[in-house]
Each structure stands twice: as structure tokens, then as C-alpha cells.
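Work package 3, deliverable 3.1, input record:
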Amino acid sequence: MNAFQFNVVGTIESPYKQKFAIPRQPGLIPEARGKLILVPPYAENDIIRGIESFSHLWLVFVFHETADKGWSPLVRPPRLGGNARKGVFATRATFRPNPIGLSVVKLEKVYRQQDKLILELSGIDLLDGTPILDIKPYLPYADALPNASGGFADSAPQTMMTVSFSEHAMDFCQAQTAYPDLAILIEKVLKQDPRPSYKKQRTTEQHYGMSLYQFNIKWTVNGEHNHVTEISQLP
Ligand code: SAM
């Protein structure tokens, strides 16, 4: 048996509406909250009985946005500036023989909404609509290995980027009472410098845009500084 078929047990609702600007691993932005919506026949209370006693969960998911782009044995990890090539199995790249991802996330809350069972999560690195194949509890005694070697990604990425907001952008964030963490989420996303490696060398002012939740965020980059110029509601 060389091929298997799996069922999607649920789908992610995420503030990240496009791949650009999603952190490269979970936990880097704790304010990134999302929901895992389990649908019938996996929305039974029994299926998650006992889950609340775990603080974190492993999610096994499909890189659905890039799944049809195939895979390659060598990839260029952004961590290495996008130039050095590494074997795909020596990386967490999305272009894999089986487009399967693995993320550990924090479990915040579990509740029901009609026939849906919802797991509220934080620290996610998942695109909106990501299909989930499996959920497993994170077991610190087995999964946390403080002496393990992290190869070329031995510690969380560090950047020196700073972030400021125009008065309009900050007022817009403060008016979004349903999204009290909007400004801090934007700040943390920009601090990790989401630009592709080849654009990081540029010295002239650059203009960027991204979607978070239902908002369109525009900013400029000058050296090591991001300035959020404008935020608007997406149509
Ligand atoms: N933590 C996971 C892992 O190790 O398997 C994902 C690591 S991968 C390097 C992280 C990137 O996957 C994010 O920056 C985002 O751009 C991308 N991503 C997240 N959800 C995706 C999806 N559903 N389809 C395609 N790409 C996705």
C-alpha cells in the first residue's frame, strides 16, 4: 500500500488571509488567534473528551494553497537568505512530496455553535481555510527536548525591525473593539519582516500591503523601520 486517503476533520479560521506575512512557525506571535472548526461527523463531544486538560495541541494539516505546485528535493530556506539549498526533508518547507504541515498551537477554549465544535487557538501559523487532518495533544515529557539541535534554525528568527503607526492607522485599530489585539498583531507581523529575502537588501523606501482579518493594511519600509500608513476594511 503506497497511497492513502485521509479525511479532513475540520478547517481553520485564521486572521491570515494570504500566505504573505504569516510567521514561519507557530508560537512566534501569540496574539494570532484562530478557530479550528470541526464539522460532522467529527463534531461529536466525545471526540474531544479530555482535550481541555492539555494546554497545547499538535495540528496535522494540508498545505492546501500550494499543494498543487508539486515538490522538489532541494529548497531554499528563507532562514538562509533564500540562497543556500537544503534537502526538503531537512526543512519545514511547504513544497513536500506530501504537502503536510505540523504546528503546535495553544488551546484557549472549546465551545459548541449549533452543529459545529470549535477549538479556539492562539499562536497559529496557518492560512485561513487550512484543512486539518488530525489533532493530537502536545506532551511536554516527550515533545519538549531542550537539548536538541535546531540545525540552521537553532533559535527563533531575530530582526531589528521597528514599527510605527500613522494617527489614522492607530485610530482605526482602536475603533475595532471586536479585535482588541489588532495593533499588536500588526506590529508583531511587521517586526518579523515578512518581505521576501531578495527585497530585504533594498535601500529605497518600499510600499507593501497585506490582509489580516477583514482589513487591508498598508505600510512602508525604510531601512529597518516599518510605518503603517493606512488601514481599511476589505470590500
Ligand atoms: N509549522 C508548519 C510546519 O512546520 O509544517 C508550517 C511551516 S511552513 C515553513 C510555514 C509557512 O506555511 C507559513 O509562513 C505560511 O506561509 C505557509 N502556510 C500556512 N498555511 C498554509 C496553507 N494552508 N497552505 C500553504 N501554505 C501555508
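The chain has two domains: 10-143, 162-233.
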